[in-house]
Structure formats: structure tokens, C-alpha cells
């Protein structure tokens, strides 16, 4: 890897989410000799930091273009001028909006290495998206990366001429590690005696929290549910728990600052989503040594330890409860942490991306 490399990641917006957290991790875990920045097409720095305080730690490495809605030639021009001024060695785009602007502007600015990571491919079923992405791939000519084998296979269905490298997402396994369950529960204000199933994520319909609450009806009374996160569905989910007579068994923690402590407090983690790309929460929970049950959507299967993970069909509370019951009653001989450290540590992921820049880009 060349010394003093400058890498610019281009994302659509910087608000709490898996893709955005991944870009931040890539910034923070890059080689010390490299300079890494993130360009957000939408929004402004002040509002973004207010919504996501973590950004304040790296605010000097963030640039916001405040792109208006719709296609913006001015945004393409701004990116081109930025790349000409900063002379990055690598421009790395994430998702369809950034590839339309970032890859094309990078090629116009003669950026040597252009990388595009596809974090999910469901949007390519839309003919307009497929046309625009195909156009961006042809004009920008980036090195194409998929964050999961499933995503690679989906890309190849639509873009048969493309060579696709798989680099799976990673998390900081040094931060997400096993710890005392009792101390973790005390720090979160949770009781020490019940068995806790936990879930984490935005409280939105796509995340399937309502399905998990329904599944709780089929589990013994000593099993409780604790939910980390906030969103537009919080009030509806609280009402659902009350109507089912489960309000005493469901705890809403809201946004949790110390997520390792959250995972450490659990007996089991569950991701009940209706749709996913390559989720990070299942990696984080397992890195903390917590066995995980997840619905079989997107590339979630690829995130689960094959010896301790359990899959369940989406949208089916009864079958989800069956998988949860099985996982809670199992005596696992191995920790899922070993699988995550080996396959999904952020440091190895960053090194894999850095290795791509040793290869010539068109």
C-alpha cells in the first residue's frame, strides 16, 4: 500500500444507519499513514452532528454538499472540483446516488482508484435504478465490490459484464466483546433474574419489532424482551405490547450509547427484520458472545455463526418463537465470537479494501 494515501468515501447522507456506521469505521480504522474523509451528498454538518453525536469525533474529516432533491449537475461539479483540489488516490462510493456522482466525478478528475461497494441489490429490480447504475458503472468504471455473496450473485444477474469482489462487512471486535451480564444489566437498569431476548435497530416497520413482540406471546412468562433504538413506530409498538398484555415483559430503552453493554446484558439476540442487506447488529451481538436468531432475509444468513445461529422465516411470529425457544434451550459448546473475529473484524475488512488499490483501475 502506498504511503500517505488519501481516500474519500462518498455516501448519500450521514445519519445513523448500518452503511453510514460502516463508512465511519473505515475512516477510524484505516492505516495511520492514510488520510480518510467522508463526503455526504445531502445535509449539513451542524444538523448531522446534532442527530448523530458520534460524528463530532471526526467532524474535520467530513464534508457536506447539501444536495437538493433530484439530479443535480451542480453537485457533480462540486465533487469534481473537490477531487481536483484534494487529489485523492482513492474515491470509494456507497450505494446508487454516490456512484452516480462520485464515480463519474472521480474519473473526470483522473482519480486513479475508484471503488464502489454495493450494500444491497434489491433496488436493482427497479428498471430506472438498474439503468442509472449501469450508466454510472460504464462512465465511472469503478472496481465493483459486494458486501455479501448474495449481493454479488444479484449484481451478476443484472450486470453480467462486471467483475465483482466480495468483501464482507466488519465490526470492531475489540470493542464488542464479552462482559459481565450482571454488571451490564445494572448499568442499563434491567433486572438480573429474567432471561432477556434483545433486539436493536431503528423502530421502523421494516425492522419487524412488531413480529418479535407477537412472538413473545408464545414464549414462557419468565422470558422478557428489551429493545434498543428509537423511531417512528415506538408509540405503536408500546401500544401493541399493552394490548397483548405484555407491557410488563417488554422494555424500551431508546437510544443506547454503550451498545457492547446492551449485548452483554442479553441471553439471546434477535433480528426480526422484514428486509435487510448485510446487517451489523448480528455481528456485534455475536462478537459479544451472544447467540443470535434472525429472520432469513437479505444476506443475514451470511452473518450468523453456523454453529450457534438460528434462522426463521420472516413475517411468522410462531416460527420465530420456535427458533427463539430452541436457541434459549441450547447448550452451545462454542462462542459465536470466534466466528466473528475470524470472518468479520473491521481491521481485516479495511485491509482487504486497501489491497484493492494495489491493482490497476481502468
TrEMBL record:
Residues 184-339 form the Glycosyl transferase family domain. Pfam families: Glyco_transf_4, Glycos_transf_1. Residues 17-173 form the Glycosyltransferase subfamily 4-like N-terminal domain. It comes from the Bacteria. GO terms for biological process: carbohydrate derivative metabolic process. Gene3D superfamilies: Glycogen Phosphorylase B. Keywords: Transferase. InterPro entries: Glyco_trans_1 (IPR001296), Glyco_trans_4-like_N (IPR028098). One of its GO terms (molecular function) is glycosyltransferase activity. This is Glycosyltransferase.
Amino acid at each position: 500500500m502506498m504511503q500517505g494515501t488519501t481516500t474519500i468515501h462518498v455516501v448519500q447522507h450521514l445519519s445513523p444507519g448500518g452503511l453510514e456506521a460502516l463508512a465511519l469505521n473505515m475512516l477510524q480504522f484505516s492505516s495511520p499513514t492514510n488520510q480518510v474523509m467522508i463526503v455526504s451528498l445531502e445535509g449539513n454538518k451542524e444538523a448531522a452532528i446534532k442527530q448523530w453525536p458520534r460524528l463530532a469525533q471526526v467532524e474535520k474529516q467530513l464534508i457536506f454538499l447539501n444536495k437538493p432533491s433530484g439530479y443535480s449537475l451542480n453537485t457533480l461539479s462540486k465533487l469534481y472540483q473537490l477531487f481536483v483540489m484534494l487529489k485523492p488516490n482513492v474515491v470509494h462510493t456507497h450505494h446508487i446516488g454516490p456512484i452516480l456522482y462520485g464515480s463519474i466525478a472521480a474519473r473526470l478528475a483522473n482519480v486513479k482508484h475508484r471503488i464502489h461497494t454495493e450494500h444491497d441489490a434489491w433496488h436493482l429490480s427497479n428498471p430506472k435504478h438498474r439503468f442509472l447504475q449501469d450508466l454510472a458503472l460504464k462512465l465511472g468504471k469503478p472496481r465493483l465490490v459486494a458486501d455479501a455473496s448474495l449481493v454479488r450473485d444479484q449484481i451478476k444477474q443484472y450486470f453480467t459484464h462486471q467483475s465483482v469482489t466480495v468483501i464482507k462487512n466488519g465490526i470492531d471486535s475489540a470493542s464488542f466483546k464479552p462482559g459481565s451480564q450482571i454488571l451490564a444489566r445494572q448499568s442499563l437498569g434491567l433486572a438480573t433474574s429474567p432471561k432477556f431476548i434483545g433486539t436493536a435497530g431503528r423502530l421502523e416497520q421494516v425492522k419487524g419489532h412488531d413480529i418479535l413482540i407477537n412472538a413473545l406471546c408464545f414464549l414462557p412468562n419468565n422470558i422478557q424482551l428489551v429493545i434498543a433504538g428509537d423511531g417512528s413506530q415506538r408509540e405503536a409498538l408500546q401500544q401493541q405490547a399493552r394490548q397483548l398484555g405484555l407491557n410488563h415483559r417488554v422494555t424500551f430503552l431508546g437510544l443506547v450509547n454503550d451498545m457492547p453493554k446492551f449485548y452483554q446484558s442479553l441471553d439471546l439476540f434477535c433480528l426480526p427484520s422484514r428486509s435487510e442487506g448485510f446487517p451489523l447488529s448480528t455481528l456485534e451481538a455475536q462478537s459479544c458472545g451472544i447467540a443470535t436468531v434472525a429472520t432469513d432475509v437479505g444476506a443475514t444468513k451470511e452473518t450468523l455463526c453456523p454453529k450457534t445461529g438460528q434462522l426463521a422465516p420472516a413475517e411468522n411470529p410462531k416460527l420465530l418463537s420456535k427458533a427463539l425457544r430452541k436457541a434459549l434451550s441450547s447448550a452451545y459448546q462454542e462462542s459465536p465470537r470466534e466466528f466473528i473475529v475470524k470472518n468479520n473484524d473491521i481491521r481485516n475488512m479495511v485491509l482487504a479494501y486497501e489491497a484493492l488499490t494495489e491493482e490497476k483501475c481502468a
